[in-house]
Design a protein that fits this description.
binds FE2/S2 (inorganic) cluster; single chain; 4-stranded antiparallel sheet; alpha+beta; binds fe (iii) ion; 8-stranded antiparallel sheet; 30% strand; 5 helices; 18% helix
């Protein structure tokens, strides 16, 4: 558990535990001495600066010496990017995905409300990478029943990433030329998928018929082994800032997630197996297999003192 806040405008994060009597700091607040730059514990009023050092213990008076150990634990890294705060409890093995569309002024950006789910973070991320379920699970949204076969695309590997591009068929409800009969509803789509362990993925959808593009950053926050909060950030260049269409697109994305959750929340285990003998994979599951391998390498790295030897 963490307490995340701005002190004097600076984003900071601390373990949510006061060193005095271990009260959660999140019950406290910031104070105006001198400029909203102190976090005050809500139990006995100890004050901490942006480095986590205690600067005042009200009960002993300002002249007293502050104990050396009166400081807050901090995560290895915290930063703000793509509309989210990203926190790494331990030294991160990799950076954040390159979601360049988010900063491109020709793209509109929006995000779905964070969604609490009863599924595993690894399962959710794996599902987001999977392409073979689209014509089976997503028939209520964009999937085309019967458009089942997938070409077995190769997987590219980067530093703690794996990616591939599928050519799929989908129903493009967002193409205005469908209504005029100039374009078919069922269209080809180039679907780029990239995963970055532990549980963040990025997809890029390019629509060859319209030349437009859409990208979604998908990140899973594990609450515990059984529960996950899903964050979906979208950037697309086909709506020209039309707020109504963007809102409709977010509602559509919520329906897509509903379709996935109907499957994922029915699992009896929320664990994603990384032992390749547990599941049966085919040639179109290469990205899913690569994801499991990366997770395995992450686990091995965290179990080995000289973890860097396991860099993929
Ligand atoms: Fe935080 Fe005492 S527990 S000041
Ligand atoms: Fe899905």
């Amino acid at each position: 558990h963490w307490v995340v806040l701005r002190l004097d405008g600076e984003l900071v994060a601390f373990a949510d535990r006061c060193p005095h009597r271990l009260a959660p700091l999140s019950i406290g607040g910031t104070i105006d001495t001198p400029a909203g730059d102190r976090l005050r514990c809500g139990y006995h009023g100890w004050e901490f600066d942006h480095t986590g050092a205690c600067t005042r213990i009200p009960a002993v008076g300002d002249a007293a010496t502050i104990p050396e150990r009166a400081r807050l634990d901090r995560p290895a890294a915290v930063q703000e990017r793509y509309g989210l705060v990203w926190l790494a409890p331990d030294e991160p093995v990799t950076g954040l995905p390159d979601f360049w569309e988010w900063d491109d002024p020709t793209f509109d950006t929006c995000w779905n409300d964070p969604r609490p789910t009863a599924a595993g973070a690894g399962q959710l991320c794996d599902n987001f990478l999977d392409a073979a379920h689209l014509p089976v699970v997503h028939t209520g949204t964009f999937g085309v029943p019967g458009a089942d076969e997938l070409p077995p695309e190769p997987v590219s590997h980067g530093h703690w990433t794996a990616s591939t591009t599928y050519r799929v068929t989908y129903r493009n409800h967002d193409d205005p030329l469908v209504a005029t009969g100039e374009h078919p509803l069922e269209q080809p789509q180039d679907l780029y998928k990239e995963v970055r362990p532990a549980t963040t993925a990025l997809i890029r959808l390019v629509f060859p018929l319209t030349g437009k593009a859409l990208a979604i950053l998908f990140s899973c926050l594990p609450v515990d082994a059984e529960r996950t909060v899903v964050f979906k950030m979208m950037a697309r260049n086909d709506f020209a800032g039309d707020g109504e269409r963007l809102a409709a697109s977010l509602a559509f994305e919520d329906l897509v997630l509903d379709e996935d959750l109907a499957v994922l929340e029915a699992y009896r285990s929320t664990a994603l197996p990384i032992d390749p003998t547990v599941e049966v994979s085919t040639r179109v599951d290469r990205l899913s297999v690569a994801y499991r391998r990366l997770l395995g390498e992450l686990v091995a790295r965290n179990q080995t003192p000289a973890g860097a030897a396991n860099e993929p």
